[in-house]
Amino acid sequence: MPAVTREYETPDTAAKAAMHLDGLEETTNDIVGEKLVLNMGPSHPATHGVLRMILELDGEIITKAEPDVGYLHRGDEKIAENMHYNQFVPYTDRLDYLAPLANNVAYSLAVEKLMGWEVPERGRAIRVICCELARISAHLLGVGVFAMDVGAMTVFLYTFTEREKIYNLCEQLTGARFTTSYTRVGGQIRDLPDGFVEAVRKFLNEVEPVIDEIDKLLTRNAIFIARTQDLGVISKEDAISYGLTGPNLRGSGVEHDLRKTQPYLDYQKYEFDIPIGTKGDCYDRYLVRMEEMRQSVRILRQVMDTLPGGPINVADAKGLLPNKERVLMKMEELIHHFIIATQGIDAPPGEVYFGAENPKGELGFYIHSKGGGVPYRLKIRSPSFINLSIISKMMPGHMLSDIPSVLGSLDFVMGECDR
Fold it and tell me: Cα–Cα 20 to 30 A to 391, which of 65, 102, 209, 308?
């Protein structure tokens, strides 16, 4: 797969790399002084939510950094174990709440794997639309706030203008803008509305020039380059050993994307490239997300051109709510509706795991079922939580002023950290 291009290097690249890549020993051994312990967060704009950073400083140089999470204490996994499978769908919106459509899809695919169901071809195509729109939306925000963290306000305005258009599409598709709750186990709540395909095409034609404009504003920008190149370097070996996924893993040069390695939703039918970095620094992670947006546009165009007809939900009528009109007219459908609404779908005993390539990385759901409509155990592999684990490894040796750049490049969401 192609590596993202790095044509714009700062003159002091070698010096900066020597400082930030060699680690704490070579950067702080010669510094003598009293160390200071500093709390950054959990209420700080650069921590992107309720993340607390416990920093040990020697002057302006970080000698130790420990991320402290848990300030949301939401208990989503335990909530899931006391709910029917479909009742938990709205809670998945609140994991990575910047990509709720993708969360809905990942969770539904996990339960469908347990049930042994496969959504029809049109339903799978609709889910690809949801996932790729969510990826563009999440990356627009990630790049926008990352740029703002290092001083580029104009980019933030560009990205949020385009995200508003995606929210309009979400509202047209699901009836909600932010917490969509669109999928159901076995399909979707409704088919694409009239005019939706044309609206998506219009958006794709508008967002591509904006991505190019953001590229012009940032990629050659001397200030942005100085704030991101050779900072927050994650080696390929460290990225793998710490379990990083998504753009943070691919930025370190690891070619791993579940849409390619373990295809689902017919991703194998679409042509797209997986961009990878070469150095694993903040700049590479920015370049990877920029190219991923272009590739998502490429995928969406192919879906629009090949969108099949037919049903959108599985044919197993016993596991789905019957048509509302029939519920109001026939006793059998009313009883069926009552059973599904009160007891949930009748899942078989077993254990399954399904991971999807979400904007932040691999969002996985492990489900242990003992039968019936409620999972015995449900565990969530949230990529932001795992991606944050490398902070204590990568942050020492950096300056205090580098923290916004490093955290912004990791692009995490605390909603799925404190799951």
Answer: 102
